[in-house]
Every structure is written in C-alpha cells, then in structure tokens.
Amino acid sequence: AIDIAKLRDLTGYITFDPGFKNTGVTKSSITYLDGEDGILRYRGYSIEELADKASFLEVAYLLIHEELPTQDQLDAFSADIQSYTQVNQDLLKISDGFPVSSHPMCTIAALVGAMSAFYSTDEAGDDEKSVLRLLAQLPVMATWSYKKSIGEGIVQPDTTVDYCSTFLQMMFAKPGEIYTADAVVSKALNKLLILHADHEQNCSTSTVRLVGSSHANLFASISAGINALWGPLHGGANQEVIEMLEAIKADGGDTDKYIAMAKDKNSGFRLMGFGHRVYKNFDPRAKIIKKAADDVLKALGVNDPVLAIAARLEAAALSDEYFVARKLYPNVDFYSGIIYRALGIPTNMFTVMFAIGRLPGWIAQWKEMRTNKEPIGRPRQIYTGATSRAFVEIAQR
Ligand code: ACO
Fold this sequence. Notes:
By secondary structure, this protein is mainly alpha-helical.
C-alpha cells in the first residue's frame, strides 16, 4: 500500500495514475470518443458515415487539415501524394539488409526512422513535404518487406489508381505484371483504413506526441509510434487474434475451454481482441467491422471457418459473468484479421495495415501538439527505492 503522508513529504502533491487511466494530457479537437455510449467521431463526423461514404484520403485530409476536402482539394492532395511515391533507393538498400524473417513492423519502423537521414525536416514543425512523403511512402515500404518474405521483386506503384488499389497492386502484382485490384477488396481495405485512422490518445498516438514534444522530427516521432503500435496489447492484437482463433480451431474448436483460460488469472492467457481502455459498452468500429467481415467473405465467396469460431467465442464471452462484469467486448481488431485474411493479406502484415491506417491520425496529432506549442512531456514518479546509502568499495561488496 502507498503511504500517502510519506509520499507527500517526498514529492509534494502529484497525480499517481499508472497507465494514465484517468489523466488528460492535452486538449484536442481531432477525435471525439464517448466510451460509455460507443461513439467515435473524427472532427465531428461519425465514424459510421465516414466508413460508409468517404475515401481514406478524404479522411486523412479531414484529420490533417481539419475540414473535409472539396473535390479540387482532394484531387490536389491525392496528386501531391502520388508525386512522392518514389522512395529514395538507399532506403531500399537498408530494407534489403534486413533478414527475410524480419517482422514487417520492425522493418517499417526502422525505414520510417531512417527517412530523417534522407529528407530534411522543418524544425518549426510545419513539414508539409514530410507529411506527403510519409503518406505516399509508408505503403510502398510496407510492401517491400512482404515481397522479400515471399522471394519476389518489388513492384513500383501504379499512380493512376486510388490509394488502396495502389497498395494492393504493389502487394499482389508480379513484377512487370499489369494488375487491377478487385473493387470489393479495395473498398473493404478503404473501410478498414478509415476505421483505424485515429483514436485520440491511445498508446501509439501518445508516443508520437510525447516523442514530438521534445521537438524530435516527424519521421522520428512516427517511427516511435509504429513501435508502440506493434505490441500485442495494442495494434499487435490483430495478428494475435487470428493466431488465437487458429489455435482454438486446431484444438477442436472448444471455445469454452479458452473462455475458462481467459478467466483464470494464473493462465497468463487473455482473450485477444477483447477489452478496451475506453469503450465500456461496445467498440463502434467492431460493429462496422463485423458486418464488413460478413459482407466481404460473402462477396469474395470465402468460407473461413475461424469466422464461425470468432462468432461463437463472442457469444460465449458476452453471456459470461466475468466478461460482463468487466465490460469486456470485442474491439476493432477482433474481426479485422478475418477480413485482412480474406483480402489475401498475410498474418504478419496485419499490424502494418493498422499502421498505414493510423498514419494520418498520428500526423494530425503531432501537428496539433506542435501548433499548440505544447510543453515537453515529462511524467513524474513515486520513488520506492532506498533513500540514502553509503557507497561500498567494489572489493568490499
Ligand atoms: N481477457 C481476459 N481478461 C481481460 C481481458 C481479456 N482480453 N482484458 C481485460 N481483462 C480483465 C483484466 O484481467 C482485469 O481483470 P481484474 O479487474 O479482475 O484484474 C480487467 O479485465 C481490466 O483489465 P485491464 O488490463 O486493467 O484493462 P486495461 O484498460 O488496462 O487494458 C486492454 C485494456 C489492454 C485492451 C486489455 O483489455 C487487453 O489486454 N485486451 C486484449 C488485447 C487486445 O485486444 N488489445 C487491443 C486493444 S484495441 C487496440 O489497441 C486497437
């Protein structure tokens, strides 16, 4: 137990809030989130409407430039991004130096960090070119590590098609092949990226803002965000969900056994894709994704047995006292992996897809932090070690 009186003597009054469960660190006008009622809005627009009607670049523009673009503004924004898709070839050499077995999150974090070695950044924090380069080049670099993992050469982006179709073309075309992305696949990817585009002060976004608060450049800050996203408790959960569902399937599909394990604190097992720091009734993104998973699988004629296991697991968890009492509901990543898989995206690329989707949000949050001239982030601590000890010479220890 914490001795409050002693603490006060040591540090004065400070807020003790491990995991920042109840600490507001900024004022932001980007994303509105009501965890009790399951509401999510980007700059006031509902996530349901944006996912249904907008393109990913339209949403990226909204997040970064605060307003929905006119057609002319969107055309100019898309053309600007397309004009930056040629990545410096020395970055490709760096990518080639990674082992084939490298997790693509490791590769893209390193490459985005390395971008600051190649491109100048604006100290004042107003780097429009860096923003465009990141939006243009992250998907390109993401496909490099996939191509390498399957022993294929890279594919240059086709800048005549939309953002999602370009990504699919770089992933799935053979070098030199003319490739047209399936419209169903491209539309589904567009929806998934929009649903992931921002989520206020989550772990990776807070990381981007914290790193940027020392006036580290945009590339360095986004690279740190990618690393934060990789963890299984955050973006890495989408990969873990599919692996968990596969393991349940291989184990005979006994979902009750895994529910029991998740409830046993000594098992070390959590139901991946369940629970959220801020949603305590439902995650609105999960609702949209669940429906999209049904639609996509039907449209593509895919019969994925893990979808049935996921539905059974969800139903069992939602009627279980443990999950009800703790308000644990499926989160955005419970069903996203099933869609990614149906679209042909390999499991180890799932979290990379999340990073591509979250990029506009990270950029918008970084810009807001710099524009508002926020101070350097520097949390306090409660020291629990020895107060004062006499140094002991090494020979006497
Ligand atoms: N399975 C089983 N029990 C769980 C789960 C789970 N997935 N999530 C939380 N709990 C339990 C905890 O053991 C704890 O129980 P207790 O009160 O008896 O000790 C209680 O629910 C509260 O959990 P916390 O870990 O304190 O909640 P927190 O807000 O810190 O964590 C988190 C949220 C990290 C998302 C957590 O629910 C989790 O680990 N989920 C699985 C991983 C996952 O899906 N992450 C993706 C999040 S969404 C995203 O990043 C896009």
